Amino acid sequence: MTSRHLYFKLFQEDVKRKAWAAALLGLTLFFSLPVAMAMVISTIREEYWGAETAAKRYQNVMEILSFGDSFPLVTMVLFCGAVVMGIATFSYLHHKKQVDFYHSLPVKRDLQFAVHITTGILLPALIYLIAVGMAVAVAAVNGICSGEILIAAVTGYLANLMYYLLVYAVVVLAVMMTGTMIASLLGTAVFFWYFLGLSAVITAFCSTWLDAYYYNSPSIWNRVLYKLSPVWAVLSAMSDGITPKMAVGSLAATVLLLAASFLLYQRRPSEAAGKTMAFPISMPIIKVLLVILFGMTGALFFSSVKDSLGWMVFGAVTGVVISHCVIEVIYHADFKKLFCHEKVMALCMTTTLLICLSFYFDLFRFDTYVPEADQVKAAAIDFDQDWWVAYGFDEGSGVNRNSTEYLMEHGTVQNIPALLEIAREGVRQINLDDENRYGYDNISSITIRYTLKSGRKVYRLYRMSLEPVMESAEILYGEPELKKAIYPGLAINAEEAAEHLVYTENGAFNHLSNISLEQRRQVVEAYQEEMMDMSFTRRKSECPVGELLLISNEDFEKIQSWQDDWTYQYRTYASGYFNGYYYPIYPSFTRTIAALKECGIEAGSLLTPDQISGIQVHIYHQELAQASGDSAEETTAEGFQSGKVVTITCTEPDQIEEILRAGYLYHYGNKNSLLQREAGYEIDVILKNETIDGDTNLQGSFFKGQVPAFVLEEKGR
Fold it and tell me: Mapping DSSP to helix (H, G, I), strand (E, B) and coil, where does residue 372 land?
């Protein structure tokens, strides 16, 4: 009973000591919740919103009371309040006289710690509860109240309070390890940002100096490190929502941090007040960790300015020296200590340079690693040749799934030796100089994932051309399971896909709903079979002539739920949501074209001369580019603008027809990245009175080796 009475008496005294912080938090929350609620409701006036006024007010009330990024003000206030309250809770530890006073009281340290911690938690919790209650009352007075709103208020309150506790525990730990207010603030900043910074710097090192690094490969620095930051925890929860796993992790981290703070509080010497660091043993550890990070940051910064070994070393040395000196001055509050502990600085510099050089020279052979076939249990590949394909919708964000991530999970290959040959060629092309590497056509980003028999997953990304290993690429591209992973429309049941079948060409959309389901099913089956047989080699010389919508009922219903107006059917199917579900039809797909003809659609009816008023052919003369100091490959619009191009205009029907046979338009060919063009030419097709997707001018190029003779003659003049 005496202990309980003493606790409440100490609690009351501690509340008085923190009254200023409580008043500041209460005032801020008053304006952030009830006042903000009243302002938002009053600004939504009926003359502006009409019949939607009540719904809009209800939605805004829900957003204000809920936890999330739709109204982040309350979370930000509590985040800052946790920092202020955490420092105010044990601010007496920064002053020798106050420390002597508190430690002279006949009260055990564990009871003192419990009192200070609970006031720092219960006081803001009560103030926040009152503010939420006032906000709910304001909404109710305006006729906006329901069980859903009360649930939102309760869940928002608990979520914000949970992350308040996490941030509060981090700040308390920083205060326990330091002896001044400035040091406590700096320590808090380190705990907030160190792991985020370390994760970002290591990832940047990999992206900068490892050519085969895949940005999303799972590793400690991009899967674990940044999650140790409370800033990331709060921002992630606000944007993505709180899962049970996140809640348990946050509460567990809070308990562990407070337990660590309690142990430090019991062992904290009284003479630590006024010193930068309360525990001398922590000083070199923290200094080394910070100095190495600043050294790596310096190397990265100067390398981004000038990509060279010398500047990287200069940046690393500069970052180490400056950060070491600054930390020593902060530790000792004396500029005379600027260069003390030179051995530690030398250790930091050596470690930093070793890390930097190991990345710069790839000492661990990251880029050249290719496992042996008997080490690989499974493998997946993304050829990066079909950027347009949609892979369904991510449940969290509601947007299309990342194509590479999808294929790394589903693009499993059977022929491991063929895949390893592609990987070895990727390694070879890494070692080529830029001129030889980019001498190939169709450079793309090939991503490979190995699942080793040990269970480890290894990712590599190669900027390479498939030309030297086209035979192996063809073998993999022809595997049924991989082809269905690359094109999910090929795996959809034919009857299901036939329900939403649409054919589009030249900007016109033909919905086949008036055609029998059996005929539509035959179109889908024919396309799926012919696309399964399609090869990379054939794609090099074939330009799509039309597109076919292949979409599952599940994805169709999700898109439908997002549409504002489904009255205009054809416009709806032209929506950007459907872009990734329109599959290209190639001229060699004779069965598909025949099946469409049975449905009354003449597929592949390309432009005719009578639709065209003229074609301009821009000829880029390489000798002119070389004479001005440009490379022969630079046959772009820049050359045209600087006068290094000859333009001929063709209006004769026979010339127009010959150009149409020898060339292709980007409008049709943008879904076939393997199309091989003849470098040095651009085509401008000018339509008469028609438009294709709103365009009257269409750009294109010639197929490789198929430039018309009269164009070659003009170029030779």
Answer: coil
The dihedral sign for the CA sequence 590, 593, 595, 600: negative
Q: Helix 73-89 vs helix 109-141: angle between axes, to the nearest 10 degrees?
A: 160
Distance CA 141, CA 134 (A): 10
The answer to whether residues 425 and 460 touch, using CB atoms and an 8 Å cutoff, is no
Residue 270 Cα distances to 220, 333, 459, 593, angstroms: 39, 19, 53, 87
Residue 72, beta-bridge partner list: none
Q: Within a 10 A sphere around the Cβ of 212, how many other Cβ atoms?
A: 24
Interval 279-331: pLDDT, tens: 999 999 999 999 999 999 999 999 998 889 999 999 999 999 999 999 999 98
Distance CA 46, CA 52 (A): 8
Containing 252, the helix (H) or strand (E) segment is helix 244-267
Question: From the CA atom positions of the chain, what is the Rg in Å?
Answer: 33
With both helix axes pointing from N to C terminus, report the angle between 147-177 and 109-141 in degrees, rounded to the nearest 10.
Answer: 150
Cα–Cα dist 521/35, whole Å: 61
Helix axes 342-360, 181-209, angle to 10 degrees: 30
612 pairs with which residues across the strands? 687
Mean pLDDT to the nearest integer, 495-507? 86
Q: Is the confidence at residue 704, as pLDDT, over 50?
A: yes
Secondary structure of 468-495 in HEC code, one letter for each residue:
HHHHHHHHHHCCHHHHHHHCHHHHCCHH
Three-state secondary structure call for residue 717? coil
Question: Quick check: helix, strand or coil at residue 424?
Answer: helix
Distance (Å) of CA 690 to CA 80, 229, 550, 572, 612: 61, 58, 28, 22, 9
Of the candidates 639, 717, 713, 706, the residue with the CA atom closest to the CA atom of residue 678: 706
Run of H or E including 377? strand 376-382
How far is CA 261 from its chain centroid?
35
- Token pair for residue 180? 């001044």
Q: Rounded to whole angstroms, how far apart are CA atoms 710 and 706? A: 12
Mean pLDDT of the residues in the chain:
86
**Rama region for 507: left / alpha / beta (φ>0; ψ in -120 to 50; rest):** left
In the block, residue with structure tokens 């192996």: 472
Residues 6+ apart with CB under 8 A from 622: 632, 635, 680
DSSP run (H or E) holding 620? strand 612-620
Confidence of residue 431 (pLDDT cuts 50, 70, 90): confident
d(CA 530, CA 528): 6
3-state secondary structure 536-569: HHHHCCCCCCEEEECCCHHHHHHHHHHCCCCCCH
Say if residues 473 and 466 touch (Cβ distance below 8 Å).
yes
The tens digit of pLDDT for each residue in 128-152 reads 999 999 999 999 988 888 889 999 9
Rounded-to-integer distance, Cα 434 and Cα 431, Å: 9
